[in-house]
Amino acid sequence: MDKPRDSPRRQLGGPAIVGESMRAAVSTVERQGHLAAAAYLMRHADDTAVVVTTDDETMQPVGIITQTDITHAVADGKDLNETRIDEVIAREQVSVQPSTALTAATELMLSSGIQHLPVVEDGHLVGIIDVVDACRVLLSAASYRDR
Prior knowledge:
The protein is of the alpha+beta class. The protein has 6 helices and 5 strands.
């Protein structure tokens, strides 16, 4: 799994943006895929979420499936080989752009009760940011300023 990269801008004390902290490589699944496929991809990518995309060639992001979603489905007695991703993803799509301030993206995740955000530019998926990566970068920047 790609980790956020250190940015020269952050090292100079400038504001962190999502594009500097996101993971560019993300696994995707289609809405009509099974939850078992999403779980398989997460396990083999060593990630905690996969982005759900449209089923056509544009593959635009329409949501995210997380380990928590898989856990809830299991706890609800759903068969992961039968349950379609479209049956469990949230209908409200929340995403950010690479130019979004990292503090704004973190506040959005915290206020929405979510831990992952797809990063979209011109309607296309370019990465993913999660609350752990965002906090790591923000805390690192704070610690740099405190020196």
